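Lay summary. Proteins are chains of building blocks that fold into shapes, and those shapes determine what they do. In this project we predict the shape from the chain. Here is one chain we studied, written as its sequence of building blocks.
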Amino acid sequence: MTRRKSIFWWIFAVIFTIAIAYYQRVTGPTYPMRTTVTLNNVKMDFKLPRSQGDGDANIKLLIPQNDFKGKIIFKRFKSFDTLTTIEMKRDGKYLTASLPHQPPAGKIEYRVVIFSATEKADLTVAPVVIRFKGEVPAYILIPHILLMFLAMLFSTRTGIEALLKGTKTFRYTLWTVILLFLGGIVLGPFVQYYAFGAFWTGWPFGYDLTDNKTLIAFIFWIVALFVLIKRPTNRFWPIFASVILLLVYLIPHSVLGSEIDHTKAPKI
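And here is the predicted shape, written in a compact code that computers can read:
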């Protein structure tokens, strides 16, 4: 492969990886939910949070109409709790309220209703679920994100190299394995621990999809690496492993992630 072609495919891989990372982020269950409602012929757009670190979760709606009011109805997710209703307070152009902080992996399901003297509107059809987490130190989170991005980048470039019968398939495979190991297998559990209080909640200890899909992708890349050590011209396994990691990244982030099931605890 010529240098010009190699540069072209690297640029393609970077753009492709950025697109996949963006897709994974915005389709995840912790990405803010966008909603549009109309009340008294006034159309309003909102973003409702679905993830919260330390402290209470603040719900802040831009509603400059002083005669509009709001309330939030909520309870802990997967619990026997009765619904609690809180009135939103006026703060200038905003209506605000706070959902009580939960332990890491705890969730609250909530509905927001805004109303006037003559009409009311639910902001969503179904309750919004917000997950609470601990703060992950930047010195762990930033390297984790960077390494996982680079792992996807090298995985994509490895697949392209194998498809085009390039000479650097083994080298790129080795880099993919190293980056995936450091970002997912080494730093991933630390991110999980700081965010949700457990180093590993995937197989065989649990069903956390984030942990499980990282493990599956890593296993396939290990297999690809060992196959290439024995048969350097093999193309199937690096291509297959790159497809597996792509499928992993197409799964929205945090789907089937850690959560507390209060129905398995005594009623309070």
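What the prediction tells us: The mean pLDDT is 90.
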